[in-house]
Amino acid sequence: MSEKNREGKRNARDKMKEARAAEEAKARRNKKLAVGGVVAVVIAAAVVVGVVVQNQRSKPETPTAAPAGTVGDKNLVIPVGAANAPSTLTVYEDPRCPACGSFERTFSPTVDQLEDAGKIVVNYHIVSFIDRSLGGSGSKYGANALGCAQDAGHFRDYHDVLYRNQPEETEDSFGSKQTLIDLAKQVPGLDTPEFQACVNDNEFGGWVSAVQQDFDKSSYKSTPTVLLNGEAVYPKKGDEQISPENLVKWVDAANQGKELGTPGSNGQSPAPSSTAAESNNPPSP
Amino acid sequence: MASQQADRGRVGGLRRAVDGTAAEWFGLAVRLGLAVVWGWAGLAKVSDPAEAAQAVRAYEILPESLVKPVGWGLPFLELALALLLALGLGTRIVAVVSAVLLLVFIAGISSAWTRGISIDCGCFGGGGAVDESQTKYLQEILRDSGFLLLSAWLVYRPRTRLSMDAWLAA
């Protein structure tokens, strides 16, 4: 065998080897590209499907149904007191929020009196975000039950009953619809089959979500948020701490020289004669 | 001379530890661990779209028009990563995406922290404003950094046991 021939054979073998290696490399590259493509498609499809599905699942910011007598451009607000009262107290509260409970138990006799005297109208925004951080559904179901009570014309009384019977924040008693219905028995005329159905069917669930979404977009971050004629008064107005006496003083100052409103009964029981704070009913075991 | 040999032995041992069968089983554990993290994080954000949007809004970084698309799409991105990691398909690319996402999260939490706003990161559901005393920025960043290490390992050594990648390569 000549040198030349041997060299030629080796060259051919090398070339074949190289060609095979190149082919394998190409196949590996193609495989990698295909896997990368599949990964990209899976991720893109998941995100697109997610956005579409969540868009369909999310409740509208303008509720399709709201409790009777609610006001505001989306009917998200429950007003209590004379519509033509000279001052407006705006209150954002979550049924499960302990600070709201303590605010209500201290201030509700005073607030009720100011309403009945035609001095203020209170605009309640019943928000429901504590369920998000603590889990459960007491904020949402409680807010819905308050909507049902508003629909039946008993918001103020039921609202006071709920806060007097508020459980510990971490306890989700209001997540039980039966508890909400049982508490309605303390409000004369509220515990009707309509009210029970409204609570059990979570009838104003969409409205509750819309109220919360409105709060989400607001600049307020905690509850209770309390504004007197748009100015924050909780826990302080300027340097002055809020107290029942100070609240009356501030309202009277704001109302000076203005005509008082004409409160209707709105199916509510009259305000207590004393401004003494109410005690918390021990939650039933 | 002797020390050189010892060095070589140590390097060889290290290489065996990083490339060997044990490392591929370790990689499997890392991959499945990260899959559980993404799956849990994604599922926790799916149930309430308004809550997911608010968790994003609370960072006060994105414009309102992007709050909902991000809040709604992000959990499904996380679920897709969980699925791909569980299958072991495209492990290195998925690990890179995981790492990038975690870096974005860490940057977002750090930004909220430095701007002095009080939020829950909403990493595993929840989110939104919280009382100043209830912020957990350091824990949240450390936790995400831990997940970042898992992702980094898979970028470095994407070959793992019981993966579709291995099955496709065979």
What does this structure look like?
- The complex is a heterodimer of chains A (285) and B (170).
- Chain A has helices spanning 3-57, 98-116, 130-134, 138-151, 155-164, 177-184, 193-200, 205-217, 244-255; strands at residues 78-81, 87-93, 120-126, 225-228, 231-232, 236-237, 240-241.
- With 285 residues, chain A is of the alpha+beta class.
- Chain A has two domains: 1-58; 78-255, 3-Layer(aba) Sandwich (Glutaredoxin), CATH 3.40.30.10.
- In chain A, the strands form two sheets. Chain A has a five-stranded mixed beta sheet, sandwiched between helices.
- The termini of chain A are far apart.
- The model of chain A has no long low-confidence stretch (mean pLDDT 92).
- With 170 residues, chain B is an all-alpha fold.
- Chain B has one domain.
- Helices cover 74% and strands 2% of the residues of chain B.
- Chain B has helices spanning 2-19, 21-44, 49-57, 64-87, 91-115, 137-156, 164-169, and strands at 119-120, 128-129.
- Chain B has a two-stranded antiparallel ribbon.
- In chain B, helix 1 packs across helix 2 and helix 3 packs across helix 4 (64-87).
- Chain B starts with a helix and ends with a helix.
- The chains are: A alpha+beta (285), B mainly alpha (170).
- The A-B interface holds A 31, 35-36, 38-39, 42-43, 45-51, 54-55, 57-59, 129, 132-133, 209, 212-213, 216-217, 221-222 and B 46, 48-54, 57, 64, 68-69, 71-73, 75-77, 79-81, 83-84, 89-90, 93-94, 97, 118, 120, 125-131, 165, 168-169.
Measure the end-to-end span of chain B: 41 Å
Kindly give the count of domains of chain B. 1
**Strand proportion of chain A:** 5-15%
| Strand tally of chain A | 7
- Shape, principal axes of CA atoms of chain A: elongated
Q: How many helices of chain B?
A: 7
Task: Name its key features.
heterodimer; A: 285 residues; alpha+beta; Glutaredoxin; 2 domains; five-stranded mixed beta sheet; two-stranded antiparallel sheet; 7 strands; 51% helix; 10% strand; elongated; B: 170 residues; mainly alpha
